[in-house]
Amino acid sequence: MINDVLHSQLKSKRETMGLPSAKLAHLLNITIAAYDDLEMSPAEWRMVLPFYKLRFLISLLEIDMARIIGPAPASKSFDGGTDISILIKALRNEKKLSKHDFAEHVGFQAVFTDIVEEHPLGLELYPPEVAMLVARKLEISPNEFVWWMIRR
After folding, report:
1. Collapsing DSSP states into helix, strand and coil, what is residue 134?
2. pLDDT band at 2 (very low <50, low <70, confident <90, very high)
3. How many CB atoms lie within 10 A of CB 2?
4. What are the structural domain ranges in the chain?
5. Which of 20, 16, 51 is nearest to 35 (CA)?
6. Cα gap 123→116, rounded to integer Å
7. What percentage of the chain carries pLDDT values higher than 90?
């Protein structure tokens, strides 16, 4: 279960560190308005911001994601050294889903499957919500999957 409180944590941490929002926007290579949206909208972080930028931001501001996505799983279902693309492809094949069906069930065109299976960081180009949709389709815990992606 997602607790959409990252927006308030971003603002609090940024202010504590004395960073202007324009500086964080520059570091993330997004507009100041887009960064301000991250601090104002509870769901913006998981619906808009690419995963790789989120990982950078939470590392930079030292944000504990446990309050947002729940506690880190006690056991690891995925090997930390495994590429996300390899894991997705293996699980999709295990479920006997075609590339087209997989992409369609997640809400994208068939090229989506090629992107997330052929590039080691392909899924990180999409917002966290997409990673959660992928996890649900592959019948794995979205929270555990997101934790695994954050820790990589």
Report:
1. helix
2. confident
3. 18
4. 6-69, 84-151
5. 20
6. 5
7. 75
Q: What is the mean pLDDT of residues 20-42?
A: 97
Under DSSP, the state recorded for 147 is H
Kindly provide the b/e burial profile for residues 91-125, where b requires at least 16 CB atoms within 10 angstroms of the residue's own CB: bbeeeebeeeebbbebebeeebbebbbeeebbbbe
SS percent in the chain: helix, strand, coil, step 5: 65, 0, 35
CATH of 84-151, one of 3.10.450.50, 3.30.70.20, 1.10.260.40, 3.50.50.60: 1.10.260.40
With contact defined as beta carbons under 8 Å apart, do 137 and 107 qualify? no
